Amino acid sequence: MDLFFYLILFLMGITFGSFYTLAVYRIPQGQDITHTHSYCPKCDHKLGFWELIPVFSYAFLGGKCHHCHEKIRPRYFILELVSGLFFILVAACLKLSVETLTLMQIAEFAFFVLYFTFAVLMAVIDKENRKMNQSVLMYGVIISLMYIVYLCIVENANIYRYGIYIVAYLVVLLLDTITLKKKARNRYVYGILLTLLTMAVFTGEYIVFTTVIITLLSIAMYLLIYQISKVHHKNKQSDKQICNEITIGYLLGLVNIIFFVFVLFYQNYLS
Ligand SMILES: [Zn+2]
Asked: 198-212 pLDDT, tens per residue?
């Protein structure tokens, strides 16, 4: 019975993954993400039913558009598969089972899905465009507020603890509005701050703190390797180019999701 339940969760996961691949491509271009029919970006060929099945259609079509034979980037396939696997992994970490499923567990899982959606869209859009997308950030603020209301009403969480988050959100949003006209560079910083707040609401201060440390260490490692390759004259990129290559939002999102699932697993199975 649970096997069937987990199969459904996997199918749900790859369907969300399929939505993410579409959203990360369309959101930065300001295109509609719900209504317009899926199409091949090269030849505009509208995708038929069999071409829309996540993961499987990629395998059937051999990673190519069936119409113009343009290669479909494997990262779309990977994103779908990873989403499916994460859905199963989190359900297993929360010890979800059909027989003992409670409303609270369903709510918890639904909030994980909402947060996972935020983290994936924020991270992948940052990786591909080096930009924190404003619509995605606002989506993060909205789901955070929903989660805070849920925690305070259903789980009797400490209102004051979350009150601090709401104040922090207001301060960042206010500063962002005030400095909006000055520099585009600041927007990236505000985007990172909003992301950290959303992460803290959903995964907790401890996990966010660790996420920041690991991210900073990995950036330091990257820069160190760059400096070494520069000494050996193998790398001709300028320092500015290298700095522009570092996508902080992407790294934060990746580290946070992996570490969050690891902690869930540890709490439920190892401690
Ligand atoms: Zn095509």
From this structure: 999 999 999 999 999
